[in-house]
TrEMBL record, chain A:
<feature type="transmembrane region" description="Helical">
    <location>
        <begin position="12"/>
        <end position="39"/>
    </location>
</feature>
<dbReference type="Pfam" id="PF00528">
    <property type="entry name" value="BPD_transp_1"/>
</dbReference>
<keyword id="KW-0029">Amino-acid transport</keyword>
<keyword id="KW-1133">Transmembrane helix</keyword>
<protein>
    <submittedName>
        <fullName>Amino acid ABC transporter permease</fullName>
    </submittedName>
</protein>
<comment type="similarity">
    <text>Belongs to the binding-protein-dependent transport system permease family. HisMQ subfamily.</text>
</comment>
<keyword id="KW-1003">Cell membrane</keyword>
<keyword id="KW-0813">Transport</keyword>
<dbReference type="InterPro" id="IPR035906">
    <property type="entry name" value="MetI-like_sf"/>
</dbReference>
From TrEMBL, chain B:
<dbReference type="Pfam" id="PF00528">
    <property type="entry name" value="BPD_transp_1"/>
</dbReference>
<dbReference type="InterPro" id="IPR043429">
    <property type="entry name" value="ArtM/GltK/GlnP/TcyL/YhdX-like"/>
</dbReference>
<protein>
    <submittedName>
        <fullName>Amino acid ABC transporter permease</fullName>
    </submittedName>
</protein>
<feature type="transmembrane region" description="Helical">
    <location>
        <begin position="74"/>
        <end position="92"/>
    </location>
</feature>
<keyword id="KW-0813">Transport</keyword>
<feature type="transmembrane region" description="Helical">
    <location>
        <begin position="104"/>
        <end position="128"/>
    </location>
</feature>
<feature type="transmembrane region" description="Helical">
    <location>
        <begin position="140"/>
        <end position="163"/>
    </location>
</feature>
<keyword id="KW-0812">Transmembrane</keyword>
<feature type="domain" description="ABC transmembrane type-1">
    <location>
        <begin position="68"/>
        <end position="261"/>
    </location>
</feature>
Length: 224, 296
């Protein structure tokens, strides 16, 4: 049943490794970008607030597929942006990370905003009473507590991000979904086995994330 | 929350804010300048690339609107099939019998853990191999099947959370009246749960609309996103313009749905307050925890 795997024709682990890399780089990128966005959305400068709100509402309502495909067709093929990649695969990977980061950042921003809302007003008021500036209130008092409260929604975003990396198949990143497409076409008689393998792969990738971060959320919850 | 994080700006803070505003404007301006000059460099700013979307109604009637119709058709079919299926799965997960609860739970968790794209590709291959569905309709079938499997399991969790959020007294009272389990669920719990979870369901519709684009990019489904190829082929490689317009159509559609969900939630909150049922809060996607994963 699994004999087509032994032919060496398909690099299954390699494909899932690319998926994991896509998820990891995009997760780091979207965490940074999402934090910057949420800082803008709660900042005292009206222009930054407006930009943050507009960006989140526009990008969140655009399908990820549109964002990623636009990165490839628009940025790469039309505007010749390569992000320093050399070949088609490399460029596809980097553009996919860019698209995933731009899109997932909005959800990280919303998760953190819900985290900020769980921090009692007294915390920020006490910090201000000590004479802290907005940046100090945010980075020393509010965000550390908000991050801990936001672990559960952030874990959900991370799981969704892992699943969303499959969209990169649309622009030729050599990750799991693209390999599955190829295998379905070549190994039609083993359709259910192929689907089972890839389903199992994604469960292996997403299940531990949920469990570990669920445990971390309980462990790190701010006791009030 | 905003006002809690900083004091009302005094004269110095106001000055500083002006400086920040100017710096931010400069940064935005630089990005805009880079994008526009890159576009001008590749001749993407030329008026004839953008004007068809305003002057030529054929772009809309031949490509964009039929594409939008396909998107809406797939989304509507998916939600209509996924709703009853999801409700059944959600109720199954609440069953008193372990032999119902456990397998249903396994099915729900399985389909929630797998990317929709894999489900769509798998469904497409299954239809090609085992059914006589013609290749014209296969992409639509595959997209709807993938979306139904995934969203039914998400809706199952919404339904479960909705029923569990009801006060215990509701079920107890129904039992005290001598209702059977099925009657309790059908006449007492489910009608109340549906109103509680309505906003979350409408939000799920946004996810479905966004996921239909997957079929256009990878399965040859003729929905809105896939129209960019025909448009750029027929109107002179206006890639950026085509993507901008297509994205805007999605944004308007989803913003309308989000607005509807918010309005529903507000109305439900008010209605609840009038009815003085205080411990029932509408289930939003954020509170749902697990189901929120589908919202991304």
């Amino acid at each position: 049943m699994f004999d087509f795997l032994d032919s060496g024709q398909y690099d299954l682990l390699g494909a899932f490794w690319v998926t994991a890399q896509l998820a990891l780089y995009s997760a780091i990128g979207s965490l940074v970008w999402g934090t910057a966005l949420v800082a803008m959305r709660v900042s005292p400068v009206p222009l930054m607030r407006g930009f943050g709100t507009a960006y989140v509402n526009l990008v969140r309502n655009t399908p990820l597929t549109v964002v990623v495909v636009a990165c490839s067709f628009g940025l790469n093929q039309t505007l010749q942006v390569t992000l320093g990649g050399d070949d088609f695969k490399e460029i596809g990977f980097r553009l996919a990370v860019l698209g995933l980061t731009a899109y997932t950042g909005t959800f990280v921003c919303e998760a953190l905003r819900s985290g900020i809302n769980t921090v009692p007003a007294g915390q920020a008021e006490a910090a201000r009473a000590l004479g802290m500036s907005f940046t100090q209130v945010l980075t020393l008092v509010v965000l550390p507590q908000a991050f801990r409260a936001a672990i559960t929604p952030l874990a959900n975003v991370l799981i969704a991000l892992t699943k969303n990396t499959t969209v990169a198949a649309a622009i030729g990143a050599t990750e799991a979904a693209l390999l599955m497409k190829e295998m379905i076409e070549n190994e039609a008689q083993a359709l259910f086995t192929v689907f089972g393998i890839f389903a199992f792969g994604f469960i292996v990738l997403t299940l531990p994330t949920g469990l570990v971060l669920g445990w971390a959320a309980k462990r790190l919850a701010v006791k009030r | 929350m905003n006002s809690v994080l900083y004091d009302v700006p005094g004269p110095r803070a106001r000055q500083r804010n002006v400086v920040y505003t100017i710096l931010f404007l400069v940064a935005l301006g630089l990005v805009a300048y880079w994008v526009l000059s890159a576009m001008a460099d590749k001749n993407q700013l030329a008026a004839e690339k953008w004007s068809p979307f305003v002057t030529d109604s054929q772009v809309w009637t031949t490509y964009l609107l039929p594409g939008l119709a396909e998107t809406l058709k797939a989304a509507a079919l998916s939600i209509l099939i996924a709703l009853p299926l999801g409700a059944a799965l959600g109720i199954g997960r609440l069953s008193d019998h372990r032999w119902v609860r456990v397998p249903v739970g396994a099915v729900v968790e399985f389909f929630r853990a797998i990317p929709v794209l894999l489900l769509m590709m798998f469904a497409s291959a299954v239809y090609a191999q085992f059914t006589p569905v013609s290749s014209d309709f296969r992409p639509l079938y595959a997209v709807v099947t993938g979306l139904v499997l995934y969203n039914a399991s998400v809706i199952a969790e919404v339904v479960r959370a909705g029923v569990l959020s009801l006060p215990r007294g509701q079920g107890d009272a129904a039992v005290a009246l001598g209702m059977r389990k099925g009657q309790t669920m059908l006449y007492v719990l489910l009608p109340q749960a549906v109103t509680v979870m309505l906003p979350a369901l409408v939000s799920q519709l946004v996810v479905i609309v966004k996921d239909t684009a997957l079929g256009g990019a990878l399965l040859g489904f003729g929905e809105l996103l896939s129209q960019n190829r025909q448009i750029t082929a027929n109107y002179g490689a206006n890639t950026i313009a085509a993507f901008t317009v297509i994205a805007l159509v999605y944004i308007v559609l989803n913003a309308l749905l989000t607005h509807l969900a918010a309005r529903l939630e507000r109305r439900l909150r008010q209605g609840r307050r009038a009815a003085a049922v205080k411990d029932v809060a509408p289930v939003t996607n954020v509170e749902m925890g697990g189901a929120n994963a589908g919202g991304v």
